[in-house]
Amino acid sequence: MALWLDAADADFESAFKELISMKREVSTDVGTVVDGIIADVRKNGDAALAAYSARFDSVDFSNPATPMRIGEDAIEAAVAEVDPKVIAALTLAEKRIRSHHARQLPPDDFYEDEIGVGLGHRWTAVEAVGLYVPGGTASYPSSVLMNAVPAKVAGVERIVMVVPAMKGAVNPAVLAAAKIAGITEIYRIGGAQAVAALAYGTETIAPVAKIVGPGNAYVAAAKRAVFGIVGIDMIAGPSEVLVIADGDNNPDWIAADLLAQAEHDEAAQAILITTDAALGEAVDQAVERQLKTLPRSNIAGASWRDFGAIITVPDLDAAMPLANRIAPEHLELAVADPDALIPKVRNAGAIFAGHYTPEAIGDYVGGSNHVLPTARSARFSSGLSVLDFVKRTSILRLGPEQLNKLAPSAIELAECEGLGAHAKSVAIRLNSKG
Amino acid sequence: MALWLDAADADFESAFKELISMKREVSTDVGTVVDGIIADVRKNGDAALAAYSARFDSVDFSNPATPMRIGEDAIEAAVAEVDPKVIAALTLAEKRIRSHHARQLPPDDFYEDEIGVGLGHRWTAVEAVGLYVPGGTASYPSSVLMNAVPAKVAGVERIVMVVPAMKGAVNPAVLAAAKIAGITEIYRIGGAQAVAALAYGTETIAPVAKIVGPGNAYVAAAKRAVFGIVGIDMIAGPSEVLVIADGDNNPDWIAADLLAQAEHDEAAQAILITTDAALGEAVDQAVERQLKTLPRSNIAGASWRDFGAIITVPDLDAAMPLANRIAPEHLELAVADPDALIPKVRNAGAIFAGHYTPEAIGDYVGGSNHVLPTARSARFSSGLSVLDFVKRTSILRLGPEQLNKLAPSAIELAECEGLGAHAKSVAIRLNSKG
User: What pLDDT band is residue B22 in, cutting at 50, 70 and 90?
Assistant: First the structure.
């Protein structure tokens, strides 16, 4: 059974504070190990990658069946293994993700202001991006699409995928997703060593400019360490959902949505806020019922027991400030009129509106991105989009007339800041010919 | 004298590679110290801030003249000290920065696709932002405007400024800039302890959601450490300029621009690429001449000697790939037709077009932002803008008909990924009533 809170209770505020500041992740201090691995890869390149892969993944790159780079033939062979229904679903997903993300391409801008100064910017794609794909059971083909398609839409020319391959094996559906997304450069490497190779390059792997994709504590620490040398996406934490429901809901549907989140990870969090205590009660019972038949019921059960919560509120308006403090990765609005609530959402990665939009649709084929800010980071960051794969160059253009008008203020400020050469670079153009 | 390279030389490629991979910053390993300071502030709050400020900044918060928070009266008193010409210049700068950044507010989007799925997003402002302002000679009023104005334009409700105050004193022009930008919450704290206070909060300082602004190695390490708890902007490195010049230029103007960059910091870098060796020669001589009279000639001279370079190329087209590999923070196009080159720029923080746009105008009153990606990070990141202070919530909305169409593919992929509860949360809506 999950935690029950009632917003009308006297001690609600302190209990709610405790809920949102709950530390769900076991923090592992892997910094020193990771720094050592990065230094080794920078120094020894491919040889270091081979050694770490032998040690951690039991894979031998000198075996012709499992070279570091996964060849085109191997990709094709893997794709042929995958159920055609999965291929069809991935193809549909790719098409829908691509078409939605195409609307995110930001426009260039250039204009002259009232004194004739030209101001503007141009957007260009990052030239090369590394995509980290976890191994094992967290090796999700859908994540390959969600990371790669926005990069493709942005115009990234080179996408390099890395994926750890225990005993050389890679999930064939992951390779199929890569092929559908148009990725051709794939290496059988993982962990901090793969991040280091992407950031600094080796004899075989040319360095990239940005690294995206989820990973374990070592991968996260390595991304944090190379941040600045390359760009990185967010550091992903355990997943979470908040469902806001009025009384007019099927409790089984809500329970299924809560459990879909909880099954990800024992550290995942599923919260229901409802105006109807009876619905809350019914959902709680439905969760227990459904847990009995779920394939991943151990994981989902632990998450629900340790981090799940049901909160009752007097009305939907009272739910919104709580939702914004939770700042959930996923926010389901299981209410009659979701459009009335949407403008009141300040902090959330993604909104799933109405009774027929289970979050799982967004994980796969909705078209929007499933890489979203976790652990309350929706307070300051956004889900993955085309914007993560482009950068802006600003443009400024003055003629002699504009320079004459702005020069005195620029010189005043440069001198106030003690930057004489700044002042001179402006002043010199007023007193001599170009 | 700076390094001379000729693109026609046989060993050019290796010399150029060395130039762009030059490490200009002395890396200081301050991680352990910073981790300790952060833990202390988390545990001891205001008391830790008072102790560090006494130790590092020789300021006593219990002295009524120098409390931790700088009161409105103290701000007013500081503003009254500042030369009215500086106030006027800051006011003009604020107005121009605000008017330009107002164009950066990104639009919301919502549409129905061809099967009736509703897709879109809404942008909302980050609620609270911390602005770090360095102390000492690097305490620039212009930087206060460049960081605060985009946040204000974005709609950030609370901006918290922190600035270390040696013996309690803060640059009055910095306080004037804060007032002009509309910042009212200012604390006399700096270093890793200030970053920790902004990220985690203390008894006096409520935590923020994002921290921006430049700082020394301790500040940078602290920002890296709290990344994830809060958002951060880029980790700024030493500044750089690349000037691309054809033969038809006044060498004194170009020299002045190179030195305006070089005077920032001994680790700053100024590079000239020119099609005309004679101009290069003349610029080199002009630099030496101007160095004799510059107030910061020691700094500028060291930067030019250690990191400056003049590169000759056969034509302007040959300059562009080199510029994109350098990925400069500032790119001046001192050529007859800058518009012909702009589309060829792939990696640069900002372009200054034509002979009458010295970079220093952009530092102060051009209207564009002077917080730009350094150390080749223009390959993957952009200058500061309104986008850094907003975040996007995506929206997905299906009705029963759309769910029926997409459900089979979603279920297929969920099952392929071993996520049974995901599949169930979709399937259950096909078989029962909501």
Answer: confident
Does the beta carbon of B54 lie under 8 angstroms from any beta carbon of chain A?
A: no
Active site residues of B: 329-330
Q: Do B354 and A263 touch (CB under 8 A)?
A: no
CB contacts under 8 A, A 212-271 vs B, are 224, 227-228, 230-231, 234-235, 237, 249-250, 252-253, 256-257, 259-260, 262-264
Q: Is A122 on the interface with B (CB under 8 A)?
A: yes
d(CA A239, CA B321): 42
The SS3 assignment for A274 reads strand
Q: Which two tokens stand for residue B176?
A: 């004037």
B363 is in an annotated binding site: yes
- Please give the distance of CA B196 from its chain centroid, rounded to a whole number: 20
All structural domains of chain A, each given as residue ranges with its CATH number in brackets, are 3-25+237-366 (3.40.50.1980), 31-232 (3.40.50.1980), 398-431 (1.20.5.1300)
Is the CB of residue A131 less than 8 Å from the CB of residue A162?
yes
Global ipTM? 0.96
Q: How far apart are CA A324 and CA A328, in angstroms?
A: 8
Q: Do A420 and B231 touch (CB under 8 A)?
A: no
Using one digit for the tens of pLDDT, what is the confidence trace for B285-319?
A: 999 999 999 999 999 999 999 999 999 999 999 99
The Cα B194–Cα B205 span in angstroms is 10
CB-nearest to A381 from B118, B231, B346 is: B231
Which residue, A71, A84, A90, A86, is CA-closest to A168?
A: A71
What's the farthest any 2 CA atoms get from each other in chain B?
84
User: Residue B27's pLDDT is what?
Assistant: 66
Contacts of B408 in chain A (CB under 8 A): 89
Tell me how far apart the alpha carbons of residues A144 and A174 are, in angstroms, rounded to a whole number: 7
Describe chain B by its helix, strand, coil percentages, rounded to 5: 50, 15, 35
How far apart are the CA of B47 and the nearest CA of chain A, in angstroms? Answer: 23
As a whole number of angstroms, the distance between CA A53 and CA A258 comes to 37
Record: contact B409-A434, CB cut-off 8 A: no
User: The tokens of B66 are what?
Assistant: 């120098």
Which SS3 state, helix, strand or coil, does residue B374 take?
Answer: coil
